[in-house]
Amino acid sequence: MSVDDDIGVAVFAGGCFWCTEAVFAALDGVTGVTPGYVGGDAATANYDAVCSGRSGHAEAIRISYQPRRIGFGALLRVFFTVAHDPTQRHRQGHDVGTQYRSAIFPVDAHQQAVAAAYIAELDAARVFAAAIVTTLEPLGTFYPAEDHHHRYAERNPAQPYVAAVALPKLETLRQHFGASMRQTAAVAASSILAAAHVAIVVHGPDGRIITANAEAERLLGLRAGSIGGPDTPDPGWSAIDEHGAPLPGDQHPGPQALRTGRAQHGVTMGVALPNGKRRWLLVDADRFDAEGRGPCAVSCFMDITAHRRLEAWQALTLSLLEDMNRRVPRDALLLRLVAFVEAQLAGARCSLQL
User: Fold this and answer.
1) How far apart are CA 135 and CA 290, in angstroms?
2) Strand partners, 298
3) I need a surface site. Which of 4, 18, 72, 194 has the fewest CB within 10 A?
4) Among 16, 51, 296, 300, which one carries the catalytic annotation?
5) Closest CA to 60 of 92, 94, 108
6) What is the total count of domains within the chain?
7) From first to last of its 354 residues, what are the pLDDT tens digits of the chain?
8) Residue 130, Cα to own-chain centre: how many angstroms?
9) Within 10 Å of residue 266's Cβ, how many Cβ atoms?
10) Alpha carbons 133 and 184: distance in angstroms, whole number
11) Does residue 347 belong to any structural domain of this protein?
């Protein structure tokens, strides 16, 4: 075998392997990514045993790559920059447990030294607000995951967990490592999601927002990481119902769908932003069960502020017309004017309903 044909192997654990697999599978020079389980004490591993937290294994990926096209150092940069949060101990976002720990399983002494040096460099530079908790662990036996977990994001880009968690990672990968990417179905889906400007948030079993895409953060005026639960800790932010009354967090469409199991369609709610402005949203929400991760809810919404302003203008104008009808003599010219304005309002109302 020539040097050009040599294949390197790297094994990383960084939360849900659906997501990490999708990230590394999109890199040029990566020839294969296998999701599986590693680092445990039990003699074997499967999804149910690992999710129980009792086997000691971590959800991990085994990456096969061509060192002449992409090096171990580049894989480390993607792992720490895009694939996961290396400052979260025994969890990634809402996925909690030792099976979701941040770990590297070096295949040789060279990888051990390179990884240790890179972690020390990142910590010294204070790249992250908190200390890195990634561990370097002996490789041991790697157990491939069940077949239906392989290429999961690639095959299920519309699955709510994938759409809300994995696809945004691919968009971040594009922003930071676009020149090193190749096109995959999951990458294409992430591009469509980003271009569609659809706001998406995912609520965990307790109703907390566990992830949000960029459009959702823009419309809400908050970053997902700053939202600690159904009620935001930001005193300058609040939610209101369609009549302007305060809307408690547990009554938002997502938590409602999660609690009742019934989809919420066409719900109008508003957010009072820290800058004093008010934004109106049209929300659809539904509950789903993320395999092995408990019940969640996904909310999709769009900005209807302009429509609400038009509705308010319609209501005000109609009120003025009614007042004119009561106060002004009803001659033919006035009646024609009223009829004309009412016709314009009816056309605008039809446009709102389309």
Assistant:
1) 27
2) 202, 286
3) 4
4) 16
5) 92
6) 3
7) 333 458 999 999 999 999 999 999 999 999 999 999 999 988 889 999 998 888 999 999 999 999 999 999 999 999 999 999 999 999 987 788 999 999 999 999 999 999 999 999 999 999 999 999 999 999 999 999 999 999 998 888 767 778 778 888 888 888 888 878 876 655 665 665 555 567 888 787 888 777 777 788 888 877 655 544 444 445 567 888 888 899 988 889 989 988 898 888 889 999 887 777 888 998 988 887 655 556 778 888 888 888 777 776 777 777 776 776 666 655 665 666 667 666 666 665 555 454
8) 22
9) 8
10) 31
11) yes
The answer to whether 208 and 230 are in contact (CB under 8 A) is yes
Question: Could you confirm whether 16 is annotated as catalytic?
Answer: yes
The CATH number assigned to the domain holding 50 equals: 3.30.1060.10
Instruction: Classify residue 142: in a domain, yes or no.
Output: yes
DSSP state of 27: B
Strand order of the β-sheet with 58-65 is: 135-136, 102-104, 8-14, 58-65, 30-38, 143-144
Identity (one letter) of the amino acid at 162?
Answer: V
